Each structure stands twice: as C-alpha cells, then as structure tokens.
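User: I need a structural model of chorismate mutase from Nymphaea colorata for a docking pre-check later this week. Nothing fancy, just the predicted structure tokens so I can convert them on my end. Input:
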Amino acid sequence: DRAQLMHLLTYEAVEAAVKKRVEMKAKIYGQEVNLNGSAVDSSGQEVDEDNLSIQPKIHESNYKIQPSLVADLYSDWIMPLTKFVQVEYLLRRLD
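Assistant: Understood. Predicted structure tokens for chorismate mutase:
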C-alpha cells in the first residue's frame, strides 16, 4: 500500500528540522559578496561574518535568492519526491 508506506516514511519533526537547516544554509551560502570575498548587506556594507555564522538573521544581507524560498522548495518538492522514489523502490523490491 503506497499511502501507508508514505505515511511510515514521513517524520514531520525531522522534516521541519531539515527545512530550518536548509534555510539557515541558504542564508549563509546565498549571500552577495564584495570583491574581497566579504559578505555585504543590502546597503553594500560589509557584514561581520563571525556573527553571521552563529546567527544568520543578525543582518539583513543581500541574498541571491530568498532563503525561505529555498526551504519551501526543499520541503514542497525535494523531500516528497525522495519519499516517492523510496516507496516505488520498496514496492518494486517486494514484487
């Protein structure tokens, strides 16, 4: 039963944690940088990268793509498709 297998593969707490982690990584790695390699905020000022790695929300950085969009993409497409492939694989192995 595909629906039951999909239900068994779904851990909402884990998926929420993964979504939060993906958003945090998108905040850190998706910033605009200046020629020196330093992160810059929307006004073009350098951002203190030491504080940014601990708390990415301290500064409004100039992101290449909105981190929340990356997290939504991951939770709406990547995770469901991964589970779908896992279910299909399990059903094929059981045939």
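Before docking, keep this in mind: Residues 1-28+66-95 form one domain.
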